[in-house]
Amino acid sequence: MSDQTIKLDSEITIRNIQPVFTQLCELFTQAEILHIDASQLSRVDTAGAQLLHLFSKTCDARSLKVDWLGCQDDLLESLGELGISLPHLKVDTLEEDT
């Protein structure tokens, strides 16, 4: 097992949830520390929010460390409007090499 990083697209909705679900599920058997690049993610619908919530709870249950990278205010606001709070998800910015 090793570290694994995935990059999320700009939205997780009912239209694209299946490939995102599959990608996240594969991480459970391949990694000990998960790095989720959410710098592009700004929109989630109810299905997307539920997926992120389930993913977070499953990681906690399996004692997997999740490092959320580059979360945007818009994402937290969207989740908050749906009544979902993910303890490990916080606003952060990716540092770019200059």
Task: Give an account of the 3D structure.
InterPro entries: MlaB-like_STAS, STAS_dom, STAS_dom_sf. It comes from Shewanella woodyi (strain ATCC 51908 / MS32). Residues 6-98 form the STAS domain. This is STAS domain-containing protein. It is a single chain. The model is unreliable at 91-98 (pLDDT under 50). The protein is built from three helices and five strands; from the N terminus they run ββαββαβα. It has 98 residues and is α/β, with parallel strands linked by helices. The radius of gyration is 13 Å and the shape is globular. Strands 1-3-5 form a three-stranded parallel sheet, covered by helices on one side. Strands 2-4 form a two-stranded parallel ribbon.
Describe, in short, the structure shown:
This is STAS domain-containing protein. With 98 residues, the chain is α/β, with parallel strands linked by helices. The protein has a single domain (2-81), classed as 2-Layer Sandwich (Transcription Regulator spoIIAA), CATH 3.30.750.24.
Shape, please? globular
Number of helices: 3
Low-pLDDT runs: 91-98
Number of E-type strands: 5
Secondary structure elements and pairings:
Blueprint: E1 2-7, E2 11-12, H1 17-30, E3 31-37, E4 43-44, H2 46-61, E5 65-69, H3 73-81
Parallel strand pairs: 1-3, 2-4, 3-5
Helix pairs in contact: 1-2
Domain STAS: 6-98
Organism: Shewanella woodyi (strain ATCC 51908 / MS32)
Pfam families: STAS_2 (PF13466)
